[in-house]
Amino acid sequence: xxxxxxxxxxxxxxxxxxxxxxxxxxxxxxxxxxxxxxxxxxxxxxxxxxxxxxxxxxxxxxxxxxxxxxxxxxxxxxxxxxxxxxxxxxxxxxxxxxxxxxxxxxxxxxxxxxxxxxxxxxxxxxxxxxxxxxxxxxxxxxxxxxxxxxxxxxxxxxxxxxxxxxxxxxxxxxxxxxxxxxxxxxxxxxxxxxxxxxxxxxxxxxxxxxxxxxxxxxxxxxxxxxxxxxxxxxxxxxxxxxxxxxxxxxxxxxxxxxxxxxxxxxxxxxxxxxxx
Amino acid sequence: xxxxxxxxxxxxxxxxxxxxxxxxxxxxxxxxxxxxxxxxxxxxxxxxxxxxxxxxxxxxxxxxxxxxxxxxxxxxxxxxxxxxxxxxxxxxxxxxxxxxxxxxxxxxxxxxxxxxxxxxxxxxxxxxxxxxxxxxxxxxxxxxxxxxxxxxxxxxxxxxxxxxxxxxxxxxxxxxxxxxxxxxxxxxxxxxxxxxxxxxxxxxxxxxxxxxxxxxxxxxxxxxxxxxxxxxxxxxxxxxxxxxxxxxxxxxxxxxxxxxxxxxxxxxxxxxxxxxxxxxxxxxxxxxxxxxxxxxxxxxxxxxxx
Lengths: 276, 306
What we know:
The structure holds two protein chains of two kinds. Chain A has helices at residues 2-17, 20-39, 50-74, 79-84, 86-90, 97-129, 136-166, 170-199, 206-214, 217-228, 230-236, 239-244, 249-273. By secondary structure, chain A is mostly helical. By secondary structure, chain B is an alpha/beta fold. In chain B, strand 6 (152-156), helix 5 and strand 7 form a beta-alpha-beta unit. Chain A binds chain B through residues 3, 6, 10, 13-14, 17-18, 84-86, 88-97, 272, 275-276, and chain B through 48, 51-55, 71, 73-77, 79, 81, 83, 85-89, 91-92, 96, 100-101, 103-106, 141, 144, 154.
């Protein structure tokens, strides 16, 4: 356990030193603030539930941005250290490879969590300061957004490690990481939509569709945030969908957690058997 | 002397290439062992096998009671390793890097300061490692290997990039650790340097252990001639000097000396006749076969034997 903590602290220290932390925080804060003030235009003068609108726009932003940041942080974590030669020395120390992976994971998730909480938190704070009324359930939904965004980041960090443990060269890892990002964020949904349109509801049943949505972590994240709260659902235009889709919040959270656990376990298994 | 590292019938294959072929040896406390061989002879592979960075294809390794192939790592708190190409994260300073490794070895953080001074890095301790020269990185590498008074030191080409002054310090440190009972395994191309340091030499060629023993033992086995250089005030002529027994190889060496190639058992006789004769010998040098020559001999012998 202490080994894991030592590695995590070093990752955070490195993240601060090479400006990862500050760059990510600034990027997320800038985008969140922009969305908050541009996005509040459609709510007009009445300004009710401005935070709910922000949740809708921020979750759409997170789906694109957080997986990308997470993969950028993680694709290099194992293969990069092997290639630079620092892994060789680290593994000659009294530490197991599982501990190395776990420590890096905790460190990277901390960096991402810090950036997300601070970046998005600033947006909520700005909204509160500018005099918009914030309801308790909106605030809860916003906290759920931040929590699930960190979870989404953790998923793609774990996937990045899996790639990193698997490939021989950093460049390959980077290529695969971009491919994974494109697949989950863009291609999957388009393909799913195409299938649904072409199928006309003949063979693809509701249950099968649910499974397909859980098989993509970004879809599970989207459903969690856009249908989780009734108010948000009505803004996102997914109120109808949330009634149709028989996926409870716990099923979605469970799926998201599995998306962290499985790639992370696989990454640490592959890395443990790897020779360097 | 208790054994610290034991290799029994270790074989390591990469694809179809054999990197280590059926190597067995036992290294004990207080021994300094030179691991000698060409590039690709299997030196680095052997060290990686001992650390569990590679898994043997067959055979067994015991490292301070651990089986590294199964991922056991408790014993590694007492192991120092200096890889051939040392690399550190460029973003951290020397002190931060060493503190990180000290924590992993459960060493008090205040040992870091002493080690930095010992390797002469105290002035650069707060500079980023990215700005270090090759020699400075090697010093930092040496410092991390020395963390926690290791019982086993595995040093892969340790003196490359070190200036002569630090090389002396380095060997002094190695000496101290050996006197305290550490096993020091050194690999190097600088054979002359190792000759003075190592109690024992293991010669590797293409993954096979070719020779294993102290330098004196290896000299006996190799039975290479000893070179005797005798300078004469009289200068040289074309004929061999009268005092030289027949049937002994020799040649002129420079303007006024003769180089004789004697088997160890003839050495004293030749020196005695050189001195007893009124041959005006002004100086005599006796040069035993160097590690370089022994290495070449064993390599040649093994290649021919195949």
